[in-house]
Design a protein that fits this description.
The protein is an alpha/beta fold and 415 residues long. The protein contains 20 helices and 13 strands. The protein has two domains: 200 residues, Periplasmic binding protein-like II (D-Maltodextrin-Binding Protein, domain 2); 196 residues, Periplasmic binding protein-like II (D-Maltodextrin-Binding Protein, domain 2, 3-Layer(aba) Sandwich). The chain binds beta-D-glucopyranose.
């Protein structure tokens, strides 16, 4: 199943008449923020909007990474009844905009100077033919290691900066009776780990094999090496990992059942929601070998073109989502960093401040890339071709060499 709208379906849908489901002074918002930390973050937007006189009809579809939400969104659009607004990752924004379903946010964007404050890499996904079509609320970084500080202290460990250190820490954690690496067993979670490993092999490999889908790079020794490392990481999961949600894996780190988790910084939202301080009870460090590089994914709110009646509320929502104060409060709860560069960093924890500084550094160094696992690396159909192989590898005894060959065939066939 593909994660997003495919072009063929989109062309068909563009012939379907749309109707506005929500009242003029409310927005119906489809999203997948249902974990504790995610729900706390979206409550900030609901409250902001209510204070501006715009009501909120909540259409939450559970499922990390948004696969289920995107399926539900397609069904609503096919039925001619899209929500007023929907959470989307970058490539999905492009797909829906290409199909002509999204409303134009340029009036708000121009009045509020979005072009001056949103990093160009994020603008590239929020605009279509030079017009703003979606409001970016954050910048997530998917390649983090989260660790239980109590376990690390007890075992005299520090956060790993190389894979050797990572595996030595995982061995020590297992020997002390904990799960080495808390994992969730869904394709997007497996891909979140694998893409981080590819980046650690080298940012140039990530760019060639994932962003450019270069066949030589995909079949290269570097990709074989990425699967070798991935196989070792998988060896530290507990037998119950199949099908586990990401936030339950984060909870294992929080409560000391497991020592580490490799996951995006939405995991930090769970830490905060548990009343803990990131960098204190739960430690953070970027995945070994990815220092100096930055994978990102941005959550956008796109407004469906559902008629004039809905536009005032939609503009209100876009404006609320882009305000400096919202972007600070929301991102402090969500675990991400603001999608605006003019939000002060002072209130962010050490992990957030690291991200803010690294984003600037990676942008200058040319090592800022969109996340494949989170809809910013390749369009849906090509993304699915990568994820199919990664998840097949994770759930079988496929060799790293065979996985590299399978990637060439799978991605080559999808391009
Ligand atoms: C989204 C995050 C979300 C995570 C887990 C990512 O794709 O960008 O906002 O928290 O999935 O659901």
């Amino acid at each position: 199943m593909t994660k997003y709208l495919t072009r063929g379906v989109g062309a068909l849908l563009s012939m379907t008449a749309l109707s506005a489901p929500a009242l003029a002074d409310e927005v119906e918002v489809m999203h997948w923020w249902t974990s504790g930390g995610e729900a706390a973050a979206i409550a900030v937007l609901q409250e902001d909007l209510q204070a501006r006189g715009t009501g909120w009809v909540d259409m939450a579809i559970a499922g990390g990474g948004g696969d289920a939400a995107m399926t539900a969104l397609r069904a609503r659009v096919v039925a001619g009844n899209p929500p007023t607004a929907a959470q989307m990752l970058g490539m999905t924004v492009r797909d829906w905009a290409d199909e002509g379903f999204l409303g134009n946010l340029n009036a708000v964007a121009e009045a509020e100077g979005w072009n001056d404050v949103v990093p160009p890499a994020v603008q590239a996904f929020g605009t279509h033919d030079g017009e703003w079509v979606a409001a970016p609320v954050n910048i997530h970084r998917p390649h983090w290691v989260w660790a239980n500080a109590g376990i690390f202290e007890e075992l005299g460990l520090s956060m790993p900066t190389t894979w050797d250190e990572f595996f030595a820490a995982a061995d020590a954690i297992e020997a002390a009776g904990h799960v080495g690496v808390a994992m969730g067993g869904q394709a997007w979670q497996e891909a979140t780990i694998w893409e981080a490993i590819v980046l650690s092999v080298s940012p140039a490999l990530y760019e060639a094999a994932i962003i450019n889908a270069d066949m030589d790079a995909l079949g290269s020794e570097g990709i074989v090496e990425s699967f070798e490392i991935f196989r070792r990481v998988l060896g530290y999961a507990d037998p119950g990992y199949a099908g586990r949600d990401w936030n339950l894996a984060t909870a294992m780190v929080i409560n000391g059942e497991a020592g580490m988790q490799i996951m995006g910084d939405w995991a930090k939202g769970e830490v905060i929601n548990a009343g803990l301080t990131p960098g204190e009870q739960v430690l953070c460090a970027v995945v070994p070998g990815t220092d100096g590089a930055f994978l990102f994914n941005t959550d956008f709110f796109a407004m469906f073109d559902v008629g004039e009646d809905a536009q005032a509320a939609q503009r209100n929502m876009a404006s609320a989502a882009m305000s400096v104060s919202f972007q600070e409060t929301f991102n402090l709860a969500k675990g991400s960093i603001p999608a605006r560069t003019d939000v002060p960093s002072a209130n962010f924890d050490v992990c957030g401040q690291t991200s803010m500084a690294d984003l600037v550094e990676a942008t200058e160094a040319g090592t800022l890339f969109g996340s494949l696992a989170h809809g910013h690396g390749q369009p849906a159909s090509v993304q699915a071709a990568y994820l199919d192989v990664v998840t097949q590898f994770a759930n079988s005894d496929m060799t790293p060499e065979a996985a590299a060959e399978a990637l060439v065939a799978s991605v080559g066939g999808a391009l």
